[in-house]
Each structure stands twice: as structure tokens, then as C-alpha cells.
Amino acid sequence: MPGAEAEESRRVAIMSKLNETDIQGFVLRGYNLTYARYFYLHFEDAARARKLIARLLPEITTGQRWDGGKPRSTVNIAFTHRGLAAFELPIATLISFPVEFQQGMKKRAAILGDTGLNAPEHWDELWREGRVHAWLGIQGLTSSALDTASTEMLALIEETRGAVVLDSQDAASQVISGKATTKEHFGYTDGFGNPDYLGVERSTQPGQGKLMPDGSWAPLATGELLLGYADEAGELPVAPIPHILASNGTFMAYRKLHQNLASFRAYLEEHGRQYGGGKEKLAAKFIGRWRDGTPLELSPDAENQAIVQDPQRSTNFTYGADGDGTRCPVGAHIRRVHPRDTFGFNGKLIDRRRVTRRGLPYGKFADENEPVSDSDDRGIIFMALNANLSRQFEFVQQQWIEYGNDARLGNDKDMLLGNHGGHGKFVVQGDGSQTNPPYVCTALPNFVELRGGDYFFIPSITALGMLAMGLVDPR
Amino acid sequence: MPNNNGCVYGLTILSPILNDEKATPSHDLQIRNYLATLPTGETSPFAHAPGTHLCRLVVMDDVIYVGMPACEEHLKSKYLIFESNLDAAGGAGLESYLRGLAQAIPQHLDAVWSHCVGYPGAANAEAFVRYMKACQIETTFFFAAVNDKTVTETLRALQTQKAVADFIARHQGMEHAKLKAEFLEFATRLNAEPLPRPGTMGSRTGESDAWGRGRGIKTGGHNE
Amino acid sequence: MSNINGKVYAMNAVTPMKPWKTWVLRAIFFVLWNVKPLQQDLINLSFIEFARWVVIPRRRFPDLGNAQPKEELQYDYLLFFSNFNGTWNQYIDAFSAVLAKGLNLIWRWSEKFPGSVPVTIFKEYIARVQFDTDYYYTAYPHATANDLKSAHIVQASFDVLSQRAQTATPEEFAEEYLDFVLQVQCHLGETGEAPVVF
């Protein structure tokens, strides 16, 4: 309908003018700095905590572009609801935060499907205890840059006695032949498919934003990531009061996902032998991309680095011509979490279900031939950024990962992330050929186990300043 | 005909509830209390009587005041709403459904509707049908996702789907003659399986999906 | 009391309408019923099992005589009953996102309807005009509309294969069986409990 399309493009053309110096850099970009260390803080005294924030403020990395080259390290900070309460914010402000953020991730366990092996009773003590008030995220280009920055931050904390450091977590990209990669422990190349938002990216990549009626891709409304900007529903996202505390901020779901590498390798070996397309293809079918990153939808029979390296192609596809899942299975991970045009309606049903992923692997990387055990400490620190935890992250986790109705797969869960408990199945749809047969994987173990996490608010620089000065008034 | 959609019928009944100031608790509360303890699973009265896909009972206390400039007004009676989506092929469908209810679950019908004005009791099926029709409101627009399958066909299909998924998973890469033999045996067994009971269809094998709880108060609704 | 049974949610809503507007709404429903393609969007949303709208003119509330007082109302009332899969928020988000025009066409005749976009104010209106279910029964609580459609596809394919299996040779059967698997491979989702409401 011409009228509607014109209206649509008019809306798209209105640029949100972002003040990048007011937004924490971690929100706007993945830094691509190889090493990370996350400190988890607990505040015991509001006055001292404010002093600490005031001292940290000049160190916080903003969203300002690094046109002059990458800094050697970055620092960012985020708070749980308990953490904000520790600053003695007015009660009216504290209760204006969304319910799910107030409750915290542990209380939402049943909603998120974090039961059985993923239940809070199996989490690391740090997360079970529920005393985490803040996440201080430091990243470094080199291991020594990381150490230097960490030492500096710890010194500030010491000096102000502003917080107790409960624990820390190291994470790092896998370095192969001196180059940092985006590979995670199961061998998959990660890091595709973060959404493009209006005003955030300089250029957009086809397949990452939202699908338009003419088949092109446009950036998502800024308000899907940042509070204070119009979102895809044509309104300002629900945000805590006062506006100035919320604007330019966002929410983060932080999850420590332990990976059972031995179980994964054993499962893939066993089923790769029985599957007509072979082990690598089966691995590709689980996710929707070959382990080198080639999307199955564009290259169903072989890996193809030319596609992977070309941003105009690597995420540029839809599933309309693959309704039966013969190229990319209907339940494959990337198809579950980003259905693109699968639900019809020009993709409009998924525009408000996107999240930005940050995060890094942790633990020692192991070669294909190296013996490994499920109890080895390795996994991925998963961080999802979004304006609204319940509508975006929680929805995707509950409805698209631990459940399959929207994909028309009943109760079937995501193959790699699902909380299977030894049950469930994953169907690889096929065609009549020998190398692409239909295949059913059953008796699924938990390839990934949740070891803890929580919900955080990542405030703007202005909001941090207000926290530091104790200047937050509700309306 | 708006009440029909394919072979499904949309029945909407509004029964005025007795308004007796001397009754304690009042009649509408008595209905509510009874419904609160009535099972909704395979021991539901509607699982016992045939033909109900989905149905609900709602005590409508009053209409809702939406705010100025709309006028505030109130109903003089409360109404018991019975919304049912049922198998009713052909013109006689509704009557046979209502008679089915009266024959199979008269005690439950009486327990609920005895609190309503003019209710004759389920013992006399004719009178019961006449009463329900007097309370019937025509459905103005009726939508059904699947409108050409009965309850029985639906339960049978769900059973088949589960069994087939299991068969396919267990028979991958099997040699042809054996596959055929096992399939024939499977088909025979499946066709001989008793129909699953309506109101259930959960797995009984105690799978570790610790999501659902027993029948509790589940409102849903927004929390933002 | 419960609005939810297994995977399906029973929503009830009542809204007042000025009597002259009821006629417009009836005409709209008439067109919607008879021009089937207009229902396509509703069908494609695929999470509604059954839904109905019921117009009750102000003088047509059932009157069983006896001592029942006659209703004296200014407005006609539009009752809405839906049986849908998923959460309350998901349901309304979806309609607001893709069926806003259709929703407006039906509810703009109700007093104080704010429009179905933007969604937050729309949700407030629905929360105000929604009333709760006392008793909810479904014959298949662990199946959604999608599960039902898939089940029927599997049943139909299975029936055909069962027939053919009687007379086919093992080789012929193997081919038929492969065809069968290809037909049902997208329709084998497990049924079971619903995710926890939030």
C-alpha cells in the first residue's frame, strides 16, 4: 500500500541525534579488545559509594568514536537494582524501574526456564548469594594493558573504600597464530547479527536491522536499545523516572554459560557419523551457520569464506524460500533468535524482539584433538543489551530458545542452548538427497549450563554523575 | 450463520443470576466458589460430556465504566457467561450438545445454574435446552483457527503426531524390509490405542520440564 | 479462578458502544465474514484457537421474567472472548504491530478506545475493560493452534502411508516413507506444558 510505505520511509528518515559522549561505549559497540576482566562490586555505604563513582566517572569509556585509534583499555560500569538501592535513591525512583529488573534474574528463573541443571541452586556462589551490586567491566588490547587498567581501578576502590570486590571473572577472545578470533569453545565463529540501530552505526549491514516491505533492510529504531528514544512501537520505551536518570541508558542481561565441551564433541562425533551430510554439516545445522561463519541459507553445501568476509553478504538473507528448513533447519539457533521474514507480515513481529549481544569466551581453549572434560572451567559470558528486558531478552529466552511454538516446533528447545535434561529432540529437515537427509537428534544433553548472572542497568554518563552527586529526585 | 464456523459452533449464553439479598453468600459468589473447586483437566465435567473443544464460565459482575465523557451505568443483574466452542455439525448440532450435557453432567449443571433466574434443572432435558436457548446470544463474529475437526479427531491427531515423531527418531537408517515390517506393526498398534482422554495430553513420563504447576490462580496480565 | 489452562489464555473484554455505532460494526463484521481474504491476517497470526465478538443490544440482555428487573441501559455492549496462545503481552504486542488497522476498525466504535497504536496506552485500555475467567476448560491444554495444525497434517500423511504400506514392496515402501518424513518433518514438535506466565 503506497501510503503506508511512504509513511514508513518518512519515519525511517528522521535521524535520532545521539550524543555519543553521554552513552557508555560498551552499549554502542563491541570494542574488539581481546582481553576482559569483570569485577563484581558490593556497596556498603552510600556516601563512600558515591565518592567511588565520582572518581570512576572520568575513567568510564564513552561512545565517542575512536577515530584516532583504539585506546589500550576501556572501563564501563552497570548496576543491579540492589546496587542502585545502595545509593539511597528515592523510593519513587526505585519502584519505577521495570518489575523484572527489580526482581533480578534469579527470581525470574522459572520464567526463563532456568530450572533443573540451570537452576540457581547450581549457580556459582557469587550469583547464588545475590550480593552483586555492580559490574565493572574492563577490557584491554593486551594482557598487560588489562592488568594495568585493573590495578588502577582496584586502587580507586581501595582509596575511596567505596566498594567491596566480591569476585572477578576473566574472559578473552581465542587467539590463533597471534590474531584474535571470534571463535567460541564449540568451534563456532560468533559475532554475527547484532542489530543496527538508527543513529548508532555509521553504515548498516543488510540483514541486521529490520526488514522493509521492499525487501531491503533499515536500521531498527534507536529506542529498541536506548531509553529515551522512539522505539519500534512508535513510543518512548517504558523507563524509570526521572527521565534524566534513564535516558541514554539501557538494560543488560548477564549470564555465565558454562559449556560442556566433552559432551558436545562426543554428541557431534556420534551423530556426525550417522548423518548423511557428515559431521561439519551437522554442526552447521545446529546453529544455522557453518563453524567458519558461512550462513547455511546462502551456502547449504559448503563453507565459503568469501561470503563470511563480505559484510554485504554475511548476514544478508531471509528464509522465505526455505519454508521447509531444508537449507537452514527451522529450529536452528540463528533462525530461532532472528526469524527474519519467517512469521510473515514483513518481519514486523520480530522488530521488537532483537537484542544486542556482547560478551566473550572464558576458560582455556582446547584443540580438536586435545582431551577435554565437561568439568573444565570454560564457557561464554553472555551479555544481552536491550531497552526492555521482559519484552526482548526474556521473551526470546522463554519463547524462542526454551520453547518452539512460534517456530511451529511445539515444546522443542534450541539445540545448543536448550535446557534439555537428556530429553527433547532436534529435527534437521532434509530433502531427498543422500547428503541432506532428514535427521532427528534425540536424548539431548545440556550442552550449555547456566552458572549465574543477573540483570543490570547501564546508565548514561549524566546519570552516573547524578548518582555520584546524590542528585536523583523523582518527579 | 455467525454461530457456525465450519463444523464448530460458537455458543454464547448469558444467564441472569438470582439477586436475593437474603442469600449468604450471594448467588454469584456461590457460583464462583463452586467453579473455583471444579477441576479443569481430564476430570472436568466438560471432558466427561462430549463435544467441547474449549469453554469458559465467567461471572460478569457489571459492565465497565471507561471514564468521561462516557456515561456511567450499571447492570441490574449479574450474568453468568458460558462461552463454548463445540462440535455441532448440522442444524441439530446445538441441541444434541445441550442434551449431551444434561444427560452426562446434570449435577454440575444444577450446581452452577441453580443460582440463575428461571433455571428448570437438568433433569428435564427439553426444559434445559429451552432455557439455554432463551439465554443464548447470537455470536456476531466467530473465528476458528481449525474449523473442520472434531474433538475426537483432534485428540487422535495429537496422539498420532507424538507417536510418529518417536517412530521416526527410532527408525533412522533402517534397512527397508525391517522398516516396513516395523511400520506396519506400529500402525496397527497405534490404531488400536485408546483415544486420549480430553482435558489432558501431557506426558506422563515425568519429564524434567519443571515449568507448569498444579491448578493455581494464573492471571497473566501486564506487569510493566 | 484462572485465565489460563495449559497453553491457552481466556481473555474477556466488555466495551460500551453508542447504539447507532453498533450498526456500523455489524456491517463491518458482515463484510469481514463474507470477504474471506480479509481474515487472512488473523489466520496468519496463528496463535488464536477460537475468538468471538458478541454484540449485545441494550434491550437484549436475556430476560427470564420472574422477579428479574429489566435492564435500563444507554449503551449497547460489545463482548469479546479470545482463546489464544502465548502471554498477554505477546498477544497484544502482535496485534498492535501488524493488525492495528483491523483492531481499530472493530473497536473504534467503543467508547474511549485510544487506538491500537502506540501499544502502551492500548494495553492500559484493555487492562481496564478486561474481566477475569472463573472457569476455563480445554480438551487439549498442551497443544497450541500451531500444534493442532501440525497434528492434522501428520495424521493425514500417516493415514495415506498406512494405506500404501499394506501393498508396497520394501523398496517402494522406503520411498513412500521418505516422502512421508519429508511431508511431516516440520510438524513433529513435542506438545507439553506451557512456559511460565510473565
Supply the helix-strand structural class of chain C.
alpha+beta
Helix content of chain A: 25-40%
Helix fraction of chain C by DSSP (H/I, runs of at least 4): 40-55%
Count, helices of chain C:
7
| Proportion in β-strands of chain A | 15-25%
- The level 1 CATH classification of the largest domain in chain C is Alpha Beta
Report on this model:
The complex is a heterotrimer of chains A (475), B (224) and C (198). Chain A has 475 residues and is of the alpha+beta class. Chain A is built from 16 helices and 14 strands. Chain A is globular and about 70 Å long. Chain B has two domains: 4-137; 151-192. Chain B contains seven helices and six strands. In chain B, strands 1, 2, 3, 4 and 5 form a five-stranded antiparallel beta sheet that branches. Chain C has two domains: 4-131, Alpha-Beta Plaits (2-Layer Sandwich); 145-184. In chain C, 45% of the residues lie in helices and 19% in strands. Chain C has seven helices and six strands, in the order E-E-H-H-E-E-H-H-H-E-E-H-H. In chain C, strands 1, 2, 3, 4 and 5 form a five-stranded antiparallel beta sheet that branches. Classes of the chains: A alpha+beta (475), B alpha+beta (224), C alpha+beta (198). Chains B and C meet through strand 2, helix 1, strand 3, strand 4 and strand 6 of B and strand 1, strand 2, helix 1, strand 3 and strand 4 of C. Strand 6 (141-144) of chain B pairs antiparallel with strand 3 (48-56) of chain C.
Entry summary:
The complex is a heterotrimer of chains A (475), B (224) and C (198). Chain A has 475 residues and is of the alpha+beta class.
